[in-house]
TrEMBL record:
Protein name, UniProt field: Glycerol-3-phosphate dehydrogenase [NAD(P)+]
InterPro entries tied to this protein: 6-PGluconate_DH-like_C_sf (IPR008927), 6PGD_dom2 (IPR013328), G3P_DH_NAD-dep (IPR006168), G3P_DH_NAD-dep_C (IPR006109), G3P_DH_NAD-dep_N (IPR011128), NAD(P)-bd_dom_sf (IPR036291)
Main subcellular localisation: cytoplasm
Binding site for NADPH: 10-11, 31, 48, 108, 143, 258, 282, 284
Amino acid sequence: MNISVIGTGSFGTSLSMVLNDNNNRVMMYGRNQDTVQEINERHTNSRYLKDIKLSETITATASLKEAAAHAELLVLAVPVNAMRSVASDLNGYLEELNKQVLVVHVAKGLELNTYKRVSEVLEEVFDEARVSDICVLSGPSHAEEVALKQPTTVSTASLSEEGAEIIQDVFMTDYFRVYVNNDMVGVEIGGALKNIVALAVGALAGYGFGDNPKAAVITRGLHEIARLGTKLGANPLTFLGLAGMGDLIVTATSQHSRNYRCGQMLAGGLTLKEATEQMGMVVEGVNTTKAAYELSEQHDVEMPITKVLYGYLFNGISEDEAFTALMKREKTSESEGLKQLLESQIKNSK
Ligand SMILES: NC(=O)C1=CN([C@@H]2O[C@H](COP(=O)(O)OP(=O)(O)OC[C@H]3O[C@@H](n4cnc5c(N)ncnc54)[C@H](O)[C@@H]3O)[C@@H](O)[C@H]2O)C=CC1
Ligand SMILES: O=C(CO)COP(=O)(O)O
């Protein structure tokens, strides 16, 4: 298949390697001319994936129109809040070229201000005639490990039934295993909201907290992800899968995670601006904490960890205040919470 990967960051680059290994013709689009030149001439992308050699059959372009012209499949690997403008430009080129493509995105977050999932943004921006289907690929998949061909498993979902099956075939290699999931909302919400929990757990690690509080935030974090997700129409069981628990584990326990490391840096005394600048790569959890907090208020869904992290990131509450807010909440029942999730699922499936 002719595939254009939009975004020459860490994940766009490692997915290009997977797709190239599967005998697709891969063209990467990057807005940075130096990176494009490095990929074409030296077959490396040293800023994002140090010590990794790319195949010479992977090409790169700084022309979005050329990428649109090449593609039967577009893989969108830019940050969530760049998706709307990138997709809008692509739609214009597809119209000019009078062609239709399949689209898959791999971004993990909610759009600021609209609180939309990425597939909702894409559905809004792309004309129906330009896309055969819109899909998501998500799950526990650090770019650094994908590039090293570490066995990796992810989920894919699509708006119609067909798209996800095509994505499964196109991406699946002996080290990259893709599962089809029919819950687009759950797959996108799981991928987006785990970044909030990873930031919080990274901060805990940075303050020197032990394993008990980390397990508490991961587990109760998953619960609040499921609570908001189910309210938005997801199947709560999706959050036990790769795009839920899987991605939460890989992100909230790993030094590869930019969200986790950002939390550590904040605990180490850097400001939010300093930490994100020092990272030099997107930390989706920051914007998504804001979007998810506001969305939870709008839907009246209790998300105590998200709320506390929002206060910590944007309103300067201290770690002590954050812990007091969480530990001194009114007492509650775990089984009652799980029962409510199941009741929402029954309501959603009617
Ligand atoms: N790095 C990882 O391990 C994984 C990342 N993801 C998700 O994939 C998305 C991209 O992440 P990464 O590749 O890691 O980020 P990154 O920060 O490494 O790279 C982002 C790329 O997007 C480009 N970009 C940003 N704004 C743009 C715009 N307006 N137009 C064109 N290009 C633009 C940047 O120049 C850069 O090349 C994020 O939503 C992330 O959550 C998903 C799974 C794994
Ligand atoms: O989503 C990821 C792994 O699945 C990567 O997480 P970070 O964006 O925190 O690095």
